[in-house]
Amino acid sequence: MPIKNKVILFYNHRSGNGMFKNNLDKIIARYQADGKLVIPIRAADNSLTAFFESMNKETYLDEYCQVLVAGGDGTINICVNAMINNEIDLPLGILPAGTANDFAYYFEIPSNIDKMLDITLGGKSTYADVGVVNGKYFINVAAMGQVVDVSQKTDPVLKNSIGVLAYYLKGISELTDLKPIKVKLTTDSKVYDEKMYFMVVMNGKSAGGFKMISPTSEINDGLLDVILFRPMNVFEMPKVFMKILQGKHSLSRKVLHFKTSYLKIESDIDIPTDIDGEHGQKLPLTFSILHKKLRIMTAEEDMGNK
Per-residue pLDDT tens for 157-173? Predict the structure, then answer.
């Protein structure tokens, strides 16, 4: 009978502050001690997709037991898209090595490499939803507007050296340039005609290091949280910003918040978009959700509803 002892390790050597490169030998050693063979795939072009496409389906079912991904949310996004598109149904172990690591934050995955590996080798998992936007998949957040695309404009060297603070500094520098944008939001039960500064469509709880941007989100409830920030003057901005840090901004009249399993966003203006920290598609955007599509390795079973 075949032994399912092979593990795919998809890694981004450029992510974060070098955590992965400094601990590669430890990762392989821990897995070898557990009787597992690590197959490393370097993130470049369509490397993971090409690997999956070249893999015999029977071989995958008989020999592979897990996918490991080392990097930030953008790397996890690439990994998940490749898995779903190639019908790879294996538990996903996360080694967060990015700047904000928002998806890993939801599952309380620690920053210590030994504790990360305790989780990925521990055998416990939680099912997670996957968002869909215009036929592509996302794990944590889709964002649009002049503020929430700051990760695209932030110098990678700055991001890696000062981390989440880089997002904040870039966002503050653009506040004076904000202009209201008209958008139409269509759900399966209601249509909203709004003016916004920026908005996020959340699967997880945090985005760009803002830990409480969507405090009521649940990763496996079959719903997306939509949070739209309406135009506000310079005196109202600090108050709303403080509420964001406290996770209380949904109570503000300057914020629209609702949950939905279907959403279409339209605008006459070309709005910058960002999917899991990387450049997104142009509007219109149509969203849906795949309920409990992924198995994520976690410290405890069923950590999704928190």
Answer: 545 544 444 454 455 55
